[in-house]
Request: fold
Amino acid sequence: MKALTWHGTRDVRVENVDDPEIINPRDAILKVTSTAICGSDLHLYDGVIPGVKSGDVLGHEFMGEVVETGRDSTLKNGQRVVVPFTISCGACFHCQIQQYSCCENSNPVEKQDMSATLYGHPMSGLFGYSHLTGGYSGGQAEYVRVPFSDVGPIVVPDHLDDDDVLFLSDILPTGWMGAENAEIQPDDTVAVWGCGPVGLFAIQSARLMGASCVIAIDHYPHRLELARQLGAEAVDFRTTNVREALMEMSGGIGVDAVIDAVGMEAHGFAPDNLLDHAKQKVGIGADRAHALRQALLAVRPGGRVSIPGVYGGMADKFPIGAMMEKALQVRTGQTHVQRYSHDLLEKIEQGELDTTFLISHRLPLEDAARGYRCFHDDQNEWTKVVLKPGMTSTQEKSS
Amino acid sequence: MSTSRTATLAGSLVTLGVLTAISMRATQKSKGSPKKRDDAPDYTHKKPDAGNTLIGRSVTIRKPREEVFRFWREFSHLPQFMENVESVHKEGGFTVWKIKGPAGCNVRLVCRVTDEREGELIAWSSVEGSDVRTEGCVTFTDAPGDRGTRVSLTVQYDPPAGEIGRFIAKLFLREPAIQARHDLKRLKMLLETGEIATSARLRSQTRAAQKENSR
Reply:
């Protein structure tokens, strides 16, 4: 089959690799119909996530048609399903209390040592996201093996297009959980750093949860415009003093909740970020946590901090004093996708959530390497890339 | 040859688990040993007592205690989750373990059960005719709430070539503590989910297939 494989920093290629097989009883094989490139795939592309090996198949946002099932799978051939990027067994202590992204049984034993050393505990398995999280082949391919297929995949109705439901795999529940972790109350003023897909979905979710004012922070005009269309007020950090603006826009109180949808590769020329850049370049495992530092200083005393943005290593000059002295609550984590799948599917069906507005490009799988390059280099225009195995280049469209 | 054999022995022992805990405790008592520094398990001390090679590891499995106990007590199940153990079979009142190491080097252990309490504990020890001396004990206790069963394995062994043997074993990633942790996690996966997670894309790439092929 054809698949997008990683070969090094900014080197991904579409190659022929072996088709996946059913291995364990609860497995299923999908024929992928749509798969997206995620902002967090760019961390792999930039080589800032450890444990990626040459030849690894990337992709953790995908959906498709069931073409083969193991003995204990509950899926049937021909069903259309969206697959959560988190692999969860459904049976362990964490899965039972709906902490699906903390599953103890989905990361193969021999792969657990690295994340256990880094983080104190092993991570769960994730699709196509380095050997820290299992080394599972991802969904930017024609076919994919889905373990625990009786737990993760959600069957979607035929009247919804792939584009309507594809983002149930990651960025929609991630944005939703980002807002939920901010414990938004009616009348809140909420600030969201980063207007990538997760930030945009967090903005939409925060509005739906009753926030009276959402402030979006980014530097790409097009992304800020998308945020405005969702009802947010835009702040361009290149031209505006963000903390001063947030204080003024919240009437001198400070924002009630902050959401960091940026993560470990913050943009901008703030002094702390330039220093972080240098440290990340030399590969000492330092994250660029500028957005998070700013968020911790901007949030009002007693406020809430939610971090859906991905971090993988260490951050220094971390304002721990602001966190303690201002009595902040901090919540974060990889998304417990399965916890939200059904409710969010219902909201899509009822038209409460718009999931397609951010798709800027639809490309054949064969063009995936170009998709990565443009998504990385032209973030203003390329807001979200969906890859369609089987699509021909002449059908390529940009909305 | 000596290198791979050493690695094999150390690794193997792990799986075997071994006994110790009980005999050690007995020894300590009879010596009227000094009061324990704290309530943590002995094997978590930063400086293990010289001469003792004791390892221990616990895992909590979300299954009833009786079920976990019975699965373990049927020793022929052990190769399903113990990576180095090729087979375990009964011979008279003993169990014979065939353990595999790098470079096709096999180790044979003849063990007898030295203590057994239904649903609570199994202890065993190697006897004459074994390639290595080792003892092990596994205990089963109820975990708080509905978390299932806490399984704790302690193993004591004579390191094949002392410190050097363990150093070499570590290079082969068969250092007993690591092996014990991996084996217990595989047991947890097997009992909780009915399968052992693998990220292989092809059946031929799984560890189970590779274990089978290398026989």
